[in-house]
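Entry 14. Ran structure prediction on the chain below.
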Amino acid sequence: MQEFKNLKEANAIHSTSKGEESDIRAFGINSPVINIPLGVTLPEKIDGAQSIVRSNYNISNDSFVILFLSRLHPKKRPEVAIEMAAKLKDRHQIHLIIAGDGDEKYKTELQELSEKLSISDQVTFVGFVEGKEKGELLQGSDLFILPSLSENFGIAVAESLASGTPVVITPQVQISEYIDEYKAGAICEGNSVSFAKTVSECIENKSKMNSYRENGLRLVKEKFDWNVIAFELLRSYEGILKK
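Output, C-alpha cells:
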C-alpha cells in the first residue's frame, strides 16, 4: 500500500512505452506519465559473425538462422518458436537457436517438443548467454523472434535492432509501437501459424529484410541512443522542478 501511495502522489512516473502507460492507468494511477524508452549501446561490429555462429553451433552455411533470446518461461512462448520451425522445415532450410535459461522441467518439455515435432536436428538450445557469445548471436543470426504474451518494453528486441538483425514480435511486446512507427520489423499474432507465415515472408523477401535492417538502425539512433534518452530525461526533470 505504501508503494501505491508513492505512485499516486508522484510528480511524474517514467514509463518506457504507451503500452506501459496504459498498464499504469489500469492500475488506478493518475499521476503524470513521461514516456521515454530504454536505451541500448550500438555494439562494435564483429567481423564474420554469421560464420562464427554457424561454426560454433554446427549449422550449415546455407541455413537461415532464427534466434529466440529470452528467459525460458511460458510467458515468452518459446514453444511457439519450436512449432513455427516445424511448420517451416519442409519449405525453407532454417535453424532455430534458443538462447536463455529457465526452469529445468520446462526446458526438458521444450526439448521433448522439438523431438516430438521431428525438428530437434534443426533446433539448438544454447542456454544463458552473455558478453561475446551474446554479441555473436545477435549479429550472426538472420532474424530475431519473440512471440511473448507480455513485455513492458523488450530490451532484447532493441539490442537485436542495434546489432543490425531484423525482428518479428507480437503486439504485446510493447516496443512494437516503435517498430511499427519506423517499419523496423514485422509484428504478428503470437501463434505458430502467424509466425511461420511472417518469417517465411522475411526469408523470401531480401529487400524487405534490408529495409527492416536500415530502419531498425535508424530507430536505435533516433530513439534508443543513450545520449537522446539522457537529454529527454534531463528535460523532463527540469520541467518537473519548474512546476
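The longest strand covers residues 64-69. Will compare against last week's run tomorrow.
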